[in-house]
């Protein structure tokens, strides 16, 4: 297999497996960002039954043949530029040989009282990726959007 066809296979297969995980949920609409090269492979909308959703998060997908987590960290290192994302964003790393997958936040949604913020990382903290992890990701993003209006309302004395 040539290098180009191998790279194509890794990219296509990893995005297909990531898409499968995301589209298994009925409350998500997943749009593949084929024309973009800025770290956005999927733009995921929550609650698509409500019409046009403004509750979005970004997923970058990296495929690999390696089982070496140090190599995974090196491959995703360029994505960890603080402030590069203005929406919740994570990276999915998928081993296309074994279908094993992990994820790490690039811009993690956090809620502290009435404050909704994005926490940026300078390196990945990988977690196992499966349907349960996708549920957790969606729950965290949903909570962040629910807290967002409170963050913009000033408190009266």
How would you portray this structure in words?
This protein has 157 residues and is α+β, with helices and mostly antiparallel strands. The protein has a single domain (3-150), classed as 3-Layer(aba) Sandwich (Trna Endonuclease, Chain: A, domain 1). The protein is built from 3 helices and 7 strands. It is globular, with a radius of gyration of 16 Å. The protein starts with a helix and ends in a 5-residue tail after the last helix. The mean pLDDT is 84.
Q: How is the CATH topology named?
A: Trna Endonuclease, Chain: A, domain 1
Number of domains: 1
Question: What's the tally of helices?
Answer: 3
- How far is the N terminus from the C terminus? 69 Å
Q: Classify the helix fraction into a percent range.
A: 25-40%
* Percentage of residues in DSSP E strands: 25-35%
The largest sheet is: 7 strands, mixed
Shape from CA axes?
globular
Query: CATH top level?
Result: Alpha Beta
Poorly predicted ranges: none
Structural class: alpha+beta
Work out the radius of gyration. Answer: 16 Å
Quickly list its features.
single chain, 157 residues, alpha+beta, Trna Endonuclease, Chain: A, domain 1, 7-stranded mixed beta sheet, 7 strands
Topology overview:
Elements lengths: L2 H21 L4 E5 L9 E5 L9 E9 L4 H8 L12 E7 L5 E12 L2 E6 L6 E2 L2 H22 L5
Parallel strand pairs: 3-4
Antiparallel strand pairs: 1-2, 2-3, 4-5, 5-6, 5-7
């Amino acid at each position: 297999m040539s290098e180009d066809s191998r790279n194509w296979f890794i990219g296509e297969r990893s995005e297909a497996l990531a898409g499968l995980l995301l589209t298994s949920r009925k409350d998500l609409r997943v749009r593949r960002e084929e024309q973009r090269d800025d770290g956005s492979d999927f733009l995921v909308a929550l609650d698509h039954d409500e019409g046009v959703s403004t509750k979005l998060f970004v997923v970058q997908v990296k495929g690999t043949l390696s089982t070496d987590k140090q190599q995974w960290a090196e491959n995703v290192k360029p994505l960890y530029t603080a402030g590069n994302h203005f929406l919740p964003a994570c990276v999915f790393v998928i081993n296309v040989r074994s279908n094993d997958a992990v994820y790490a936040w690039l811009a993690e949604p956090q809620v502290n009282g009435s404050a909704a913020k994005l926490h940026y990382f300078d390196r990945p903290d990988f977690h196992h990726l499966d349907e349960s992890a996708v549920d957790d990701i969606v729950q965290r993003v949903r909570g962040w959007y629910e807290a967002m209006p409170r963050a913009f309302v000033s408190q009266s004395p």
